[in-house]
Amino acid sequence: MIWNREAECMTAGEMEELQLKRLQEVVKRAYENVPYYRKAFDDAGVRPEDIETLQDIEKLPFTSKTDLRDAYPFGMFAVPDDDIVEIHTTSGTTGKPTVSGYTQNDIELWGEVVARALVMAGGDKKDKIQNCYGYGLFTGGMGVHYGGQKIGATVIPVSAGNTMRQIEIMQDFDSTILTCTPSYAMYLAEVLENQGVGHDKISLKAGVFGAEMWTEEMRAEIEKRLNIDALNIYGLTEIIGPGVAQECMVKDGLHIFDDHFYPEIIDTQTLKALPAGEKGELVLTTLTREGMPVIRFRTRDITALRYGQCECGRTNVKMDRITGRSDDMLKIRGVIVFPSQIERALLKIEGLEPQYQIIVSRPQQLDELEVQVEASPALFSDEVKYVEEVKKNIEQHIHNEIGIRVNVTLVEPQSLPRSEGKAVRVIDKRELSK
Ligand code: ZN
Fold first, then answer.
1. CA within 13 Å, CB half, 376
2. Ligand 1 centre from 373 Cα, in Å?
3. pLDDT digits over 350-409, tens only?
């Protein structure tokens, strides 16, 4: 099923024509209504009428997270406050959060793109969506809510947390689609197993998981343990929330809803555009947002774009699963390491729980990387010599993946902290500012 065949299956020529028209409009709107953009465009010596082709987008300056934060709270809004009907923010763990304002049309748009995403995951009006994304200022809860209602499904707004209640609702209400972070899906699977709730007791068929990075190996694990199709959703508060891109059942990349969000990939060093297929930082421009248009936003997410028709019939450009963020990239003794690489290595080993934490320290002058991994109960009760062998095996697998030596510590099952939102995978104890 395809929710909006016209928007999801148009030819490349039709898409480019639509994108250019919308780009010209949004650039003009931003220039005329947002003092920040007027100044930024003037400083770069570019005027809205200079955008004659899609490639001309490269003449426009980038917008960074810091630019948005500096405009706190409402400096980026392009409409009078009266026209804003809803506000969301990022978590703002460091400094002020980023604020995103929505007009009524923006809310309609949000529902539309999430509707496309849910239908891509096999959703329709018969489904019951157990929405465990947080409701509140975080965009996850409301985004899925609007999309779910748009397709006529039953939305269960259970929000994040209270795992035992989640399990109960899942069984009593016959939830068919689960929406949450992949790490929380793993945790739910674990609790279901511990409670002896088998696949025959639940009706889940699919999961729409996002808000954090995960790997193919993690997908396989979730699909097996929950007996569902596990699909990847992508989005960010600065652009709209969840619903910027979604994976179809082909499970080979996420379709970006590029009639509304224009993607580019840039080289993080030269900041120049990279051709299709090459890996770099994703930059997004909102083509139709009214409340807060964002031009060339640097997402920090590392991916690549692929054009052409997908086996599912859609033509929206696909982006690869996010493999890292240019800002949570770890530099260990000069080597670039992404937490996802460690996860990939761990999931290659039989009998390991994919629960881990990475601890970076600098006891003397050299960085040390410790990976704490939960062993299975069976393994933990085994004799010391065997445990030592497993530890060596994990160290070898991680070494193969990242090219540097690490110390692995096997910890007791269930001993690492579980998260109901985004998993905390890295603890950096280095005092790098000194
Ligand atoms: Zn597809």
1. 11
2. 35
3. 777 778 899 988 887 778 899 999 887 777 666 777 888 888 999 999 999 888 899 999
From the CA of 267, how far away is ligand 1's center (Å)?
Answer: 26
Contact 88, 237 (CB under 8 A): yes
Task: Identify residue 143 by its one-letter amino acid code.
Answer: G
How far does the centroid of ligand 1 lie from the alpha carbon of residue 347, in Å? Answer: 26
CA of 230 to the centre of ligand 1 (A): 14
Helices of type H across 242-362? 339-347
Beta strands in 171-278 (DSSP E): 177-180, 206-209, 229-236, 241-247, 254-256, 261-266
- Give residue 21 CA to ligand 1 midpoint distance, Å: 25
Those residues whose C-beta lies under 8 Å from the C-beta of residue 224, and which sit 6 or more positions away, are: none
Using DSSP's 3-state secondary structure scheme, residue 62 falls into coil
Q: Report pLDDT digits (tens) over 193-221.
A: 999 999 999 999 999 999 888 889 999 99
CA of 143 to the centre of ligand 1 (A): 21
Residue 348 and residue 351: Cα distance in Å, rounded?
10
Ligand 1 mean position, distance from CA 246 (Å): 9
Are residues 151 and 115 in contact, defined by beta-carbon separation less than 8 angstroms?
Answer: yes
Domains along the chain with CATH numbers: 1-325 (3.40.50.12780), 330-428 (3.30.300.30)
pLDDT band of residue 415 (cuts 50, 70, 90) is confident
Report the predicted TM-score, pTM, of the whole model to 2 decimal places: 0.82
